[in-house]
Each structure stands twice: as structure tokens, then as C-alpha cells.
Amino acid sequence: MARRAEPTPHVSPARTAISGAMISGTAIPVGPVRTCVGCRARVARSDLLRIVVVGGELLPDVRHRMHGRGAHVHPDPGCVDLAERRKAFPRALRVPGPLGLNQVRAYLELRTRNRGM
To answer: In CATH, what class is 35-116?
Structure first.
């Protein structure tokens, strides 16, 4: 009886992107990659701010440790505004209705002030 051939290992594009391989001449970030819900750019997780929803309010998860589903956005008011206009936060977090952005905007303002010093 003929011996069965072993399956060839298949490397998915996502796995290749995570390993930092070169794809069509552009460098892909090494490590976890996430998509900004505002501008839709794929960047390293460490370059994005994780947002979670608690009681209808969006909260910044600076340490990436809070429980629940998270959405990632650049820590830039422009990307946050774009995500709000596109209604990306409720869709990414899979929750109905409008969500308050007061805590996120306050965090970004404080972050901008502290970097300006």
C-alpha cells in the first residue's frame, strides 16, 4: 500500500504579516497588528489606543487589560472624530445605540497637554 504524503504546511497571509515578512516590498509591523476603526490603517497594536464600552460610555484602555471587546483607534482626535462619523465604535464593539466619547476625548486632551510640556 502506498504511503500517504504528509500535508504541506500552509502559511496564511495573516501569519506572514505577524512574523514581519516583506510583502510586495513593504515592511509589515512585527507582533500583533490591529486596524484603526477611524482611518482603517493596519498598524502595530502598541501604536493604537484600545477603547472598551462600559455602561454606554467609551473608555480608553491604555494598558490593554480591561475586560470585554475592544476597538482600536489612533490616539489622535482626527481618527476618533472619523470613527464617530462612520459610527465605527458601536459596530466594532457590537453594541447598539450611540456611545459617549467624553472619557476618550478627555484622555486625548490630557495626553496632548502632557506631551506639550
So the answer is: alpha beta
